[in-house]
Design brief:
Order of helices and strands of chain A: EEEHEEHEHHHHHEHEHEEHHH
Shape of chain A: globular
Radius of gyration of chain A: 20 Å
Structural class of chain A: alpha/beta
Structural class of chain B: mainly alpha
Oligomer: heterodimer
CATH topology of the largest domain in chain A: Rossmann fold
Number of helices of chain A: 12
Helix content of chain B: 55-70%
Number of domains of chain A: 2
CATH class of the largest domain in chain A: Alpha Beta
Helix content of chain A: 40-55%
Order of helices and strands of chain B: HEEHHHHHHHEHHHHHEHHHEEH
Number of strands of chain B: 6
Distance between the termini of chain B: 63 Å
CATH superfamily of the largest domain in chain A: P-loop containing nucleotide triphosphate hydrolases
Largest interface: A-B, 53 and 42 residues
Strand content of chain B: under 5%
Distance between the termini of chain A: 40 Å
Largest sheet of chain B: 2 strands, antiparallel
CATH architecture of the largest domain in chain A: 3-Layer(aba) Sandwich
Number of helices of chain B: 17
Shape of chain B: globular
């Protein structure tokens, strides 16, 4: 179990005009671990994701990714498509973003675009049906078949993604992200809208991704049953500030976390205010 | 079988009271809108009086008739047609789309065979041959625009600009350097592709309506440049005497080394027309072939993914800038090839041939045909241009018929004639995807 940090977020600050969405946030994600990012609504969790995957550029701070082979990427300087292509950070979205009119299989082939594009000689060779491209495509289809099987959607490979039930769409989105061979997989509320059985299956899947594929996972989740069960490490945000960081057991008993989630009794308000002011 | 249970009769229930009231209200609103529209347009008319001064005459009777007609038509539409259409729609769509998809390959084959035989069947009918050339030209433009609009989902209202670039490329290269059609054809395509890139760069960040406005402006800019750069393009006088294409070096004339003499035929001006027809047919089929191939390649899939969800594309490591630019450039290239053909067929071009209405017509063909469908585009081009000719006698009311047809299509087949998408790859069975699933407009912030 290597536990070197693969993602280091340092002093991340992002303000939209006067609104400070993230304030001096630092945390690390260690290799082959599942790190959960939790916090009340509006705490800035998705904003962290957007900074890590390049959709937002932080005002201040550094986001550094280290591959197992030692290659180093400063994510805050890369455009989003290079973060996915070169730094190999994959993500899913809070509101599922599949290519709804394309089949499940096509969705997974789009995820292998860069490999296939190179194999097709940037379309010039592929236009004439050259052999190397056909082999590359067959491999890509095999890989897609493997991941469809892993998420239990092999039977629906030829159905349009938009016609799949919600839980299946979420799993397909994870499969699509995995087809990019990510080093770090960022999942934005993967269990949202799933029933108990589906969310138990999701837990199994995420554990398997960590243990069998060696993918590090950073996830945002509101479902505490999921978070506490599968996370190795939890980071708690509130109003863009980190209020706790540790193992599930540590976080569960942290006074600030309990206060952020449940509020505080009236007689302790003064005490907390004093803490906050200090 | 002693007693047959009576089948529940399809008895149409009488329209509910509330339904009738709603229909009357809707009809009243429609009548009010019609009144607002026509009270000045039809109701008041200025004529030249006997002394040459303008005389105002009123025709409020005509306005009343129009308003009444609109009221009745609206009432009928909601109460009678609406129910009928709903009944029809509840039975037809799923099965119709399925059969349409099954029949499509055969239909496409039959259509292609017909297209190949046109000069044989109508050899003596010069008028029909010219019309066929026109239809195939617009089909090719439709195929080209389909790459940009249908596959990549980038609404382009200035497509005629690339047609113009192609046409002027050939005309000017032939005029200034005396280059032949066969050398200029690829050059025209390449120059148009560059024009596509030129348009692509500034509009990379734009989508939907904003993109449409900028492309519309681009089309006008190209036309105005052609119109005003008098000493290079000839301005409004255009360019005449553009060389006609030769049959691989053999000119179509009555000389001893002409096409007819070489093949031992009697010279006939129809030879050239037939040659032009097959030339544009070959170009259109080339466009179609490239499009169909590209759809199955990663580039084409990336275009479609871009249409579906640009943010997801970027999250998967697709360089959306390059992908968009290639879509613009590829679409523009085919527009340019068609333009070069147009120049050589006409022998004369002027900026008047490249107005916005041409862009609108090509876009209408693509939308009507069903975005992304080759057969649909070909059928739509035939129906639209054929229809224009068919209704030529209606003169000024031709556009009215055209408009009514468009409204009908939008109401009854909102996704175009061929409203299914064929998957580019499949594991087992290929099932067409209904267009209703294919359209996806999302928010622009990732989350």
């Amino acid at each position: 179990m290597s536990s070197a940090a693969i993602l280091a977020v340092d002093h991340l600050t992002l303000s939209f005009g006067g609104l400070v969405a993230l304030n001096d946030l630092s945390f690390t994600v260690r290799g082959r671990e599942i790190t959960a990012l939790i916090g009340p609504n509006g705490a800035g969790k998705t904003t962290v994701f957007n900074c890590v995957t390049g959709f937002y550029k932080p005002t201040v701070g550094r986001v550094q990714l280290t591959h197992p082979d030692g290659a180093l990427f400063l994510l805050e300087r890369l455009p989003e498509f290079r973060i996915a292509r070169d730094a190999r950070v994959a993500r899913t979205f809070q509101n599922v973003r599949l290519f709804t009119g394309m089949t499940a299989l096509e969705n997974l082939l789009v995820a292998q675009h860069n490999m296939l594009m190179a194999a097709s000689g940037f379309s010039v060779l592929g236009l004439f049906g050259a052999g190397p491209y056909n082999r590359a495509e067959a491999n890509a289809v095999d890989k897609a078949r493997f991941w469809l099987d892993r998420v239990g959607l092999l039977a629906r490979a030829d159905d349009p993604a938009g016609a799949l039930p919600y839980g299946a769409q979420r799993r397909l989105e994870i499969a699509r992200a995995m087809c990019t061979d990510p080093v770090l997989l960022c999942l934005d509320e993967p269990a949202a809208g799933l029933n108990n059985r589906e969310s138990a299956e999701l837990n199994l899947l995420l554990r398997a991704l960590r243990d069998e594929n060696g993918t590090s996972i950073l996830l945002i989740e509101h479902d505490m049953a999921v978070v506490m069960e599968i996370s190795d490490h939890i980071v708690v945000l509130d109003y863009g500030v980190k209020i706790a960081d540790g193992t599930p057991a540590q976080v569960r008993n942290d006074a600030k976390v309990i206060a952020a989630y449940l509020g505080v009794p009236d007689d302790e308000v003064g005490q907390i205010e004093a803490q906050v002011r200090s | 079988m002693s007693e047959r249970t009576p089948l529940p009769r399809e008895n149409k229930p009488a329209p509910e009271r509330t339904e009738v009231i709603a229909a009357i209200r809707q009809a009243a609103i429609a009548a009010l809108v019609a009144f607002g529209l026509f009270v000045l347009m039809v109701g008041i008319r200025t004529d030249q009086g006997p002394t040459g001064a303008l005389v105002i005459s009123t025709r409020f009777g005509a306005v009343a008739a129009i308003v009444a007609a609109v009221f009745v038509a609206s009432l009928l539409r909601t109460l009678v047609l609406g129910r009928a259409a709903a009944a029809v729609r509840s039975v037809i769509p799923a099965s119709f789309n399925r059969t349409a998809a099954q029949v499509a390959p055969y239909l496409a084959g039959a259509f292609l065979a017909l297209a190949l035989l046109v000069p044989v069947l109508f050899y003596t009918n010069r008028y029909l041959l010219d019309l066929a050339i026109l239809i195939v030209t617009y089909t090719m433009l439709g195929f080209g625009l389909n790459i940009v609009v249908g596959l990549a989902g980038l609404l382009d209202l200035g497509y005629v600009a690339f047609y113009a670039v192609g046409a002027y490329s050939y005309a000017l290269l032939a005029q200034y350097f005396g280059m032949s059609f066969w050398i200029c054809l690829p050059l025209a395509g390449i120059l148009a592709a560059f024009a596509g890139l030129l348009l692509g760069f500034p509009v990379l960040r734009l989508r939907g309506d904003y993109l449409a406005i900028v492309t519309l402006g681009f089309g006008e800019i190209i036309r105005l440049i052609l119109l005003n750069w008098q000493n290079f393009t000839g301005g409004p006088n255009g360019i005449s005497g553009i060389p006609r294409p030769s049959f691989f070096g053999l000119p179509f004339n009555s000389s001893a080394d002409g096409f007819a003499a070489t093949f031992g035929l009697h010279y006939s001006p129809t030879h050239r027309v037939v040659f032009l027809y097959y030339l544009i047919l070959a170009l259109a089929l080339f466009t179609s072939w490239i499009t169909l191939r590209l759809r199955r390649l990663p580039l084409g899939r990336a275009w479609e993914a871009l249409r579906e969800d640009e943010i997801a594309c970027r999250a998967l490591g697709i360089n959306t800038t390059n992908t968009k630019l290639t879509a613009f450039a590829t679409g523009a290239m085919f527009g340019g090839l068609a333009g070069a053909f147009f120049a050589t067929r006409q022998g004369f071009i002027s900026p008047e041939s490249f107005t916005f209405s041409e862009s609108a017509l090509v876009l209408a063909i693509v939308v009507l045909g069903g975005m992304g469908s080759q057969l649909g585009v070909a059928v739509a081009a035939t129906v639209m241009l054929g229809g224009f000719e068919l209704f030529r006698e209606f003169d000024q009311y031709r556009m009215l018929v055209f408009g009514a047809a468009m409204v009908a299509i939008v109401i009854y087949r909102p996704h175009g004639l061929v409203a299914t998408r064929k998957p580019s790859v499949s594991l087992r069975t290929q099932r067409p995807i209904p267009a209703a699933v294919v359209e996806g407009a999302r928010s622009e912030t990732p989350g």
